[in-house]
Structures are given as C-alpha cells and as structure tokens.
Write a structure and sequence with these properties.
The structure holds 2 protein chains of 2 kinds. Chain A is of the alpha+beta class. Among the domains of chain A are: about 455-530 and about 690-835, no CATH class; about 535-685, no CATH class. Chain B has a domain at about 75-95 and about 110-280: P-loop containing nucleotide triphosphate hydrolases (Rossmann fold, 3-Layer(aba) Sandwich), CATH 3.40.50.300. Classes of the chains: A alpha+beta, B alpha/beta. Chains A and B meet through helix 13, helix 21 and helix 25 of A and helix 3 and helix 5 of B. The complex binds adenosine-5'-triphosphate and magnesium ion.
Chain lengths: ~850, ~280
C-alpha cells in the first residue's frame, strides 16, 4: 500500500524531484568521473610499465633510503659492472641504463617539453627485451651526434628523421641529428614525457660522467628464475649497490606513478565531495518543501489510519528511489565526465592513451552508495517531520512551511558557531592548518544550522531598499524571502558554501602573493632572475649558464640555486643549495653568525630561531639524500630572508657530493644590463630571463593558473547551488500559485510578477553570498595565521576580486530566477483563483 | 465576532432575513463633478458565447448572453449551479476571454486589449471580491486594501481611504495579517480593496458564500452602502435570495443564457423566479 503510494508520489512529483535528482546526478557524475579517470590512468600506466619491464629479470643499482621517482637514480654506479654480470651463469643479456636531463629545441629554437610536463634523457638500449622503447621510424642512434626522440615530441615540434637540432643538458648545448622516432609500448610517450635517446657512450657523457651509469639490467636464460638470478648477482654488485627482480622494479615504478595519480585523484575527489555537500542542502530543501506541500495529504493518510512510521517510510522510500535512479544516471554521466577530463588533460599536455575507460566495482558501488546515502540522509529530517503531521492538519487551511524559528535552534546554532569559531581560532593559534580546516567544515555546518535564525532579519534588512526601489513587487519579494526562514536559509546555505570556498581561496592567494612579493622585493638585492622552471633536480639549467654570465662584463654578482627533494631530520621537503660566496650579497640575510664561506660539503646555514627553535653554531642536521643520510654541521645562522631563500640551505659542493645531477634551478644575477643577459642566453631557450617585476608576475601567474583550476572545480558546486535556488523558487511558486493568480487578477503585471520573483531570488542570493564572504574572510585570516605566511603582510583583502565574487554570485542568483519568474508570470489566473 | 463599533452599527442595520425591506432606489449623490449621464452602461456583454473543450465534449458555458450593467447600481447575477455565472463574470472582468461576442468595459472592447492593457484595466478600473482566498497572506490588511494602487505606484487618496476604512470598520485591524483576521473581516478587507482604487465596477463572486448569515449580512450592507453612498457600481454573483434582496436588480442565467431579470428584487420575488426557473 505504502509502496504504491510512494510510486504514485514519485510520478506526481517528477518535476519537483528533478532538481534533487540533478544535484545528485552532477555530484555523482563528478565523483565517479574522477574515479574512473584515475583508475583508467593508473591501469594504463600499470600495464605500460609492466610491459616495459617485462623482459627485465633483475636490475642492479645503488641503494637508496628514499623512495625514488620513475627513472631517478640515487647515485651512479660503475659501467664496468655490465661486463661482470654478463659472465654470470643464467644471464642471457645485459645492458647499462643511463638517464638524466636532456631536452631538444624545435625548428624555431624553442625548447620541446618543459619541466612541468617532464623531460628525460636516456640511453637507447640495444637489447630489445630490455628496451621499453620501439622504433616507429628511422633507426637507433649511434655516435655522439645522433639521437632518437619520442613520437609525441616529434609531432608537436614538427621534427622528423634527418632533422638537425640542439640538445640541452647539464653540459654545453650540443648539435644533434634526429635518426629515429620512438614509441613507448602502445603509446607515443608515457604521460606526456619528452624523451631524448642517445647511444650508451653518448648518454653517459651527456647525462652522467663517462664510465658511470644509473643501473644495469639483465635478462635471464630460459629456465633460470629471477629470484635465482638475483641471488647469483648479489655477491658481485659491491657495497652500496643492490639487485632487485624485474617484478619488484615494476611494482616500484607502478607505486611511484600511482602516488602521483592518487594525489591528483584525491584533489579532484575533494571537489566532487564539495559538490555533493552543496547538493545535500538542495535535496533536504526539496524534500522539506514537498513534505510541507503535502501536509494535508499526509494528515489525511494519518486520519484514515496510517501510522507515523508508515508515512515516514513512504518519504524515505521516495528519497531512496530518487537517490538510486539519480546515482545510476550520475554513474553513466561519470563516463562522459571522465572523457571530458581526459580531453582537458591532453590539452594541458598530459597524454592519456585512448584505452577503454575502467569502471571498477569500487567506483560503481562507491559512487552510487555515496549518492544514495546523501539523498536518503538529506531526507531524514523532512521525513521525520512528515511522520509528525497531526491527523487534524487535514482539516486546516492550506498548511505551508511556516517554520517558526525555535529557541533551541538559536541556542544550538549559536553554540555550534561559537565552538566552530573556537576551533578555527585555536587552529590559527596553534599554527595548525588541519585544525583550521576541520574548524572550517564545522563552521559551514554551524552557520547552516543558525541560518534560519538569521534569515528573517537579514531578508528584512536586505529587502528594505528593494521595497523602496521597486514598490509593491519589491515588498512582496521581501515578504516572500522572509516568510519561510528555513527554506530561505537552506537555499542560501548551498550558495554560501561555494562562495565561502571561492572567497577563501581568493583571499588566501592574495595574501600568499602579497607576502611572497613583499619578501622578495625586500630580500632580493640583484636585478635579474634566470629561471628554468625546474621544480626538482631532474631538469634545470646547465651550470655553464652561470659560469658564462659571471664572466660577462657589467655583471656584478651571479648566484646559482639548486633544489632537491630530501628528508631533513626525518621530514620530507625541498632543500636549496646556493653559491655560498655570493648568496649573502645577492640576498639580504640580515646578521649572519658564523661563516657562510666555510659551509663546504658538510656545513649547513640555518635561519635563526627562538625558544625551542633556537639554533647554535655547531648543532647538527641530518639530511637524507637519495644516496644516503649525511650529517651536516650548522656553520652559519642568518636572521633575515628565510621567506625568499628558505629556512636552511647548503653550499653547492654538498649537492655535488651527494646528488648525481648538476643542474641549476635558478640563477640570480646582479647587473644593470638586463638586455645583455638575455642576449648571452639566447642559446638556452629554457632559461627565462626575468626582471624582479617579471619574476614576481611569473610566480603570481603560476599561482593564478592553479587558482583558476580550483575556481573552475568549485564552480560546479556554485552551479548546483544556483540550481537549488531555481528549484526552491519553482516549488515556492507552485505553492503560491493562488496568491500569484490573485495578484494578477487585481492588477499585477507580468513584468511586476517577474521582477518580484527575481528580487526574492536576489535577496536569497545576497544573503548566501554575504554569509559565504564573511566565512571566507574569517577562514582565510585564520589559515594565513596558521601557516604563518609573512607575518608582516597578514591578511590581504583583495577588494576588487571579492566584489566580483559577490557581484557574480548575486547576479547568478537573479539568473537562477529567470525560468521560475517566467513560470510565475504565466500562471493561469483563473485556475489559480479557482483554488484547489 | 468581535463587538466593535461598526459591527454594532451593522447589527442594528441588519434586517432579519425574511423581513428584508425591498431596498428603494436612493437618490444619487453625485460626488463626481463630471456630468455622467444616468444609467451609463459600465460593463456590457453582447452575444457572448464561451465554449470549453471541443466536439462531443464541448461545454457551452455561455450560449449567447447579452447584458449591460449600469453605473451606480447593485446587480445580482443568479442562476443554478453550472449556469455560467462565474464564467460570465470572469469574462466581464477581463480574467477570461470569450469564444465569440463582445465584452466592453466603459468604451473599451476587451478583445482588442493585450495582456498588459488588460492587467492595467483590472488594476485601475475593476475591483474584485472572490468567495475565498482574497488576500495576500504576507501583506497586512492596509497593504492588501491598497494593493492595486501600490501596484500602479500610486498613493491612495487619504480622505477616500479613511472613508472606506471607516465604512468597513477595520481601523483597529489595519496592521493585521490575513491569518489574524476572521473570515468576515477578511472579506471586508477584500471589499475595501475593491473600493479603495475607485474602480468603475466591482465584481463579487459569491462574496458571502463562506460566511455565516450575520457576517454575510455585513458584507452585503457594505456593498449596498458602497453603491448608495459612495456611488460605486457592483455586480455580485449569488445563490442566496436574501443576498439578492440587497440589490437593485437581479439578472438570471440558465444554461448559459439570460433567463429573465427582476428590478428591486426581494427574497420572495427572487425565490419565486428561481422556483419557476427550476420547473
Ligand atoms: N475550465 C473549464 N473547463 C471546462 N468546463 C468548464 C470550465 N469552467 C467552467 N466550465 C463549465 O462551464 C459551465 C459554467 O460554469 P460556471 O463556473 O460559470 O458556473 P456557475 O454558474 O458559476 O456555477 P456555480 O454556481 O456552481 O459556481 C459549467 O458546466 C462548468 O462545468
Ligand atoms: Mg461559480
């Protein structure tokens, strides 16, 4: 009986449930699309890497205490090992493996690939079973002047077999002829990487030192197990080296790339969950409105003998069916989302092979479960209210959602808000970004609880000028925004979340920019930054760049900077190495205790600290490089400039001793002739010559690119919120159709009706936007304090962008009202007046 | 019912249902300086038909109605259920369109007016009282009374407004929301709204249908006073011969056609007519 009723209700409320369904569909589509995409990428890489390493029985390499990135080596090993292992019984063939930084130039002298998309130089392995690359055109490179490149780079740069080019590396730029175009398994190149391949000897000379290789790989004779082979090789590899099976190598490679993919997936999933969170408000709102519109009907059911439990079940069943259907549609739509994201990524240079999309059971079940859970959970409160409808209500006049604001809500909402604020402030005090984050989530929920308390007075206040401006339609808009405080608040809350997050980001980014910029201008004493864009030691500028610049007339000082991913005293992070002879001239380091010139290969300079962070000369720091842990002695303490150069650094010899790569990430120059620097570096297209202003612009630009992506992802949440506003208005209009008919009968024009609905929407939107902005400001302030961005700069309020956020959100609120207002204006006067 | 001054006054004036004196035509009090010719037709229907549906399912709600309503008169529109009273009224008031025929308000042919002009006409020249749900729940009594003027962006004429408020006896309830008013009070607000904008004609569709006889009598008295003392024109649909007795003229409808009329109807004469109609 109740089941029949549920189905009838669903059929009767198709339209009203559409927005609910849509909110669920969008959220689930986003979520499942993200999961499908990451699973697909991971699956593709897993099989690519498994195939690439399939022939490898064992690999010999230097040990490392750190996880290594794909192709990274901790320390070179002796090339002669390959001859030793070749003689071992059970080894069929063996090869050296060399990799490092190499990048080519296209016909116009521009660099092919970038540090961001990945650049890699390797040796062309002559043993087919050990070579993941295959020739697509031409032949293998032989001799110092020949290279092979990947097919994607060839296509993008317009290069082919026989073309001449220049190879950039850690050494001087060198000319080369392209003799081959390669593929990597089934793809042109893995993950958009730009690859340059040399013969063994050239690879050693260009990427390492002659006689030094990164690893040695072997194939096994038939019948010899990989484990056996590893056991036979182990005694021969020497101290500090290790042997692993090909299978272990594959797992390592897969895990390494899997980590990046997971991070990327997590990033996207976070935004999907935000969308669903916003969606939850809409779902709850829709069910509340539907329940209140059906009060009489439910009361009648109760009057004829249905139990409260049955009524509640009917509503929950309706939510469950809606949730299941919408989630299933969302899952299907997720495939399209995954395809869209893949297209977007390939535009950004990350080539994901066009394999079939992988929909794992986890994705399918998980996405649908999340969608259904959110839908059902959002309907719990409305359903409970439905079950409490008194049978007597059937006899009353049209019962609307005349939710009064209870004292309990005021106390609870107020209390929660205070508690959440306390957590946020505590997080700031304790410099804990995570605590601020938890507080932020709590604050959003707390304010949503408090929303209905605020809705009436705020709507009244916001509506007052509308009344004056628009007369009676304005007055009606204002009263309508005030009449159901819960509905108004729930609608505004969904917008609030999006606006809070967007404005938080805007504020946070502005402060980061401003403090970074302020610190750099303050600390940097030179005039030019030569930037490679390198984010770690795998690419960068040849040290020849710095040497060449230092020798030029008019150049006063040159300081090189290198970056490496290491662990310092057990915590992972980046370590900088600077030219110790010039770093204190190039940057204002304030008072320097000790002697920077005596850092050598085992000394470290550290920012001065106070209290528990106090440092003294002679203290030690353990830095773990990929090649091993090294104890450094504090030989200098500086009192200024940490925001720019980092809170610790070592000298270049320390890197040269402990890292295989010798590439500068940046070179800072002090000269009056910027043009001369540019001219001197004409042959190094990866070296960007930037003035102080230009460098700051570039840094800000990088941040803006990330911000734009995040805004776009948050945009979905805002779209869902607007959908919610439109839906609420549509439901309200349906509920008020008699009233609207009456208004039209006594002379309200269609334009006035539309204007009235638009203004009501605007009031709700401004309410949500205002709350969101307020929360965004508080959170940004707390977060900036927590992460300790430039104490001097503090919170920067970018008035312009915030006004834009506020304006766009409010206008969007009006836009959301377009369709509902048209419907309101088209209402059939007679039908409305006739009642029913 | 609350015992207020006006209500007591009404009570005194309310005739018992059976001994309702046949209202006599009161001398017209011309507050209007304009030389309005007597018996000017304010609203008229000529050969009006209204068909719902088509083919076999077609319902001829109006099957050729010609009738005129004169200024300064209170007319009752009567007839059995389904005879087309509401339909005719809705067509006259510009709320609905006719299938054939002509509806005029003043000298305006409604068929020639678009939605905007019709809306303006309803707002400025026509007043309404429906059987129920007459008021906007979010507006208080005074705001509801002045709603058509507010929509037009005009301020009410203060003295006229005061006069209307006193006539309907709602001065103490002006800032109350409809939910805080009794059914009778709500209908009085609706009557006040119809009066405040000084429309050329007021249409009331069973305005007392939901009220008890005493509250109904109040409303009828107000309508009659509006005609007699405030020089308004009112057309009222009613089933009730007692209500018709308050009017100057009763027009009868049957099966979508005019079926006779009575001047200065009394409950008895209307009853007679209806009995004859029924047979
Ligand atoms: N929207 C409509 N669609 C179809 N038929 C309609 C419609 N509105 C009215 N009718 C029909 O038109 C005829 C006249 O209806 P109307 O409402 O004018 O009657 P009435 O005289 O006001 O009756 P009552 O005294 O019951 O209010 C009736 O037969 C009715 O069924
Ligand atoms: Mg009727």
């Amino acid at each position: 009986m109740i089941a029949t009723l549920t189905l009838r209700q669903l059929a009767a409320n198709k339209r009203r449930l559409l927005a609910t369904a849509f909110a669920v569909i969008l959220g689930v589509a986003f979520l499942s699309g993200t999961l499908i995409l990451t699973d697909t990428i991971r699956g593709t890489f897993d099989s690519l890497l498994a195939k690439a390493d399939a022939g490898t029985a064992a690999q010999i390499r230097a040990t490392s205490p750190l996880d290594r990135g794909y192709g990274d080596s901790s320390r070179p090993i002796d090339a002669g090992l390959v001859d030793t292992v070749r003689r071992v019984d059970g080894v069929a063939e063996a090869t050296v493996q060399v990799s490092g930084y190499a990048q080519i130039l296209d016909g116009e002298g521009k660099a092919v690939g970038s540090a961001q998309t990945g650049v890699l130089g390797q040796n062309w392995v002559t043993v087919p079973a050990l070579n993941p690359f295959t020739l697509d055109a031409g032949r293998a490179p032989t001799g110092p002047g020949e290279i092979a490149i990947d097919r994607r780079s060839a296509r993008l740069a317009g290069l082919g077999v026989g073309d001449h080019t220049t190879v950039l590396s850690a050494g001087e730029p060198r000319p080369a002829t392209i003799v081959g175009i390669t593929r990597f398994g089934s793809v042109d190149t893995p993950g958009g990487l730009s690859v340059v391949l040399f013969d063994d000897a050239t690879a050693q000379a260009v990427l390492n030192q002659p006689g030094q290789v990164d690893s040695v790989a072997v194939t096994a004779r038939p019948g010899v197990s990989h484990d056996d082979l590893v056991a036979r090789l182990a005694p021969l590899v020497g101290p500090g080296n290790e042997v692993i099976t090909g299978a272990a190598l594959t797992t390592e490679h897969q895990d390494d790339i899997g980590r990046d993919i997971s991070q990327f997936g997590l990033f996207l999933t976070m935004f999907a969950l935000i969308s669903l969170f916003v969606g939850a408000f809409i779902i709850s709102n829709t069910f509340s409105i539907i329940v209140s519109q059906r009060t009489r009907e439910m009361a009648l059911l109760r009057a004829v003998g249905a139990s409260g439990r049955q009524v509640r079940r009917a509503v929950m069943a309706e939510a469950a069916v809606t949730g299941v259907v919408a989630s299933a549609v969302g899952l299907v739509a997720g495939v399209a989302v995954a395809k869209g994201l893949r297209a977007l990524l390939s535009v950004l240079g990350v080539d994901i092979p066009l394999g079939t999309l992988r929909i794992t059971p986890f994705t399918a079940v998980g996405s649908v479960a999340v969608g259904v859970t959110i839908t059902v959970a959002s309907a719990v409160l409305p359903a409970r209210r439905a079950s409490r409808v008194a049978p007597l209500a059937a006899l009353r006049e049209v019962a609307q959602d005349r939710s009064a604001v209870s004292r309990a809500r005021m106390l609870l909402g107020g209390g929660l808000t205070m508690a959440a604020m306390a957590v946020v402030l505590g997080g700031r005090q304790a410099a804990s970004a995570a605590t601020v984050g938890i507080g932020a989530f709590a604050l959003l929920i707390a304010v949503s609880v408090l929303g209905p308390v605020l809705a009436r007075p705020v709507a009244a206040g916001l509506g007052a000028p509308v009344y004056r401006l628009r007369g009676m339609p304005g007055a009606i808009a204002r009263r309508n925004a005030m009449r159901n405080p819960k509905r108004t608040a729930r609608t505004a809350s969904s917008l609030m979340i999006g606006v809070a997050l967007v404005s938080f980001l805007a504020l946070f980014a502005a402060s980061v920019k401003s403090s970074g910029e302020g610190a750099f201008r303050d600390d940097f004493q030179g005039t030019v930054v030569v930037d490679s864009g390198a984010i770690d030691a795998s690419s960068g500028l040849s040290p020849a760049v710095a040497t060449g610049l230092a020798a030029r007339p008019g150049v006063r000082t040159v300081t090189e900077q290198r970056i490496a991913a290491v662990e310092t005293d057990g915590s992972a992070g980046f370590l900088n190495a600077y030219d110790t002879a010039t770093v204190a001239t190039m940057f204002d380091l304030g008072t320097v205790e000790g002697d920077l010139s005596r850092l050598g290969a085992d000394g470290i300079a550290v920012e001065a600290g106070t209290g528990p962070d106090a440092v003294r000369l002679g203290d030690t720091r353990t830095v773990t490089f990929p090649s091993g842990a090294v104890t450094f002695t504090v030989r200098a303490i500086y009192h200024h400039g940490a925001d720019t150069i980092g809170n610790r650094f070592v000298g270049l010899p320390a890197f040269e001793t402990n890292l295989p790569d010798r590439l500068d990430s940046r070179v800072y120059v002090d000269t009056d002739d910027v043009g001369a620097v540019s001219r001197a570096l004409a042959g190094y297209p990866t070296a960007k010559v930037l003035t102080t202003d230009g460098f700051i612009d570039q840094q800000n630009g990088d941040l803006d690119a990330v911000l734009t992506l995040m805004y776009a992802l948050l945009g979905l949440g805002v779209v869902i919120a607007l959908l919610g506003i439109a839906n609420t208005l549509a439901l309200s209009i349906h509920e008020r159709r008699r009233e609207l008919g009456l208004l039209r009968a006594v002379g309200m024009s269609r334009a006035q009706v539309r204007s009235s609905v638009r203004w009501e929407s605007a009031i709700i939107a401004v309410f949500g936007t205002g709350l969101g902005l307020g929360i965004g400001v508080v959170l940004a302030w707390a977060m900036i304090g927590a992460v300790g961005i430039g104490a001097s700069a503090g919170l920067v309020v970018p008035v312009g962008p915030l006004l834009i956020v506020a304006g766009v959100a409010s206008l969007a609120g009006v836009a959301a009202a377009v369709l509902p207002s048209r419907r309101a204006a088209r209402i059939d006067i007679l039908a409305a007046v006739a009642g029913a | 019912m609350l015992a207020g001054g006006p209500e007591r006054r009404v009570e005194g004036m309310t005739p018992t249902t059976t001994t309702n004196p046949a209202p006599t035509r009161s001398p017209r009090l011309p507050p209007d300086p304009a030389p309005v010719p007597p018996r000017r037709v304010v609203a008229g229907a000529t050969d009006v038909t209204k068909v719902y549906g088509a083919g076999d399912a077609a319902v001829h709600a109006l099957a050729g109605v010609t009738v005129g309503f004169e200024a300064g008169r209170f007319t009752a529109l009567m007839g059995p259920s389904g005879s087309g009273k509401s339909t005719l009224m809705h067509c006259l008031a510009g709320l609905d369109t006719v299938t054939t025929g002509v509806i005029t308000i003043g000298d305006a042919d409604l068929a020639t007016l678009g939605d905007k002009a019709l809306t303006r006409l309803r707002r400025d020249r026509i007043g309404f009282v429906f059987q129920s749900f007459n008021l906007i729940p979010t507006l208080d009594a005074l705001e509801n009374m002045t709603l058509p003027l507010s929509l037009a962006g005009r301020r009410p004429d203060r003295t006229w407004l005061d006069q209307v408020i006193d006539t309907v006896g709602l001065r103490a309830r002006l800032d109350h929301r409809p939910s805080e008013l009794s059914g009778g009070q709500q209908q009085r607000v609706a009557v006040a709204r119809a009066l405040v904008s000084r429309p050329e004609i007021i249409f009331a569709d069973e305005p007392t249908g939901n009220l008890d006889s005493r509250a109904g009598a109040e409303i009828l008295t107000f309508l009659r006073n509006a005609v007699r003392e405030l020089d308004q024109t009112v057309v009222m649909v009613t089933h009730d011969p007692t209500a018709a007795a308050y009017t100057d003229r009763a027009v009868f409808l049957a099966d979508g056609r005019i079926d006779g009329e009575l001047a200065d109807p009394t409950a008895a004469s209307v009853g007679d007519h209806l009995t004859r109609q029924g047979s």
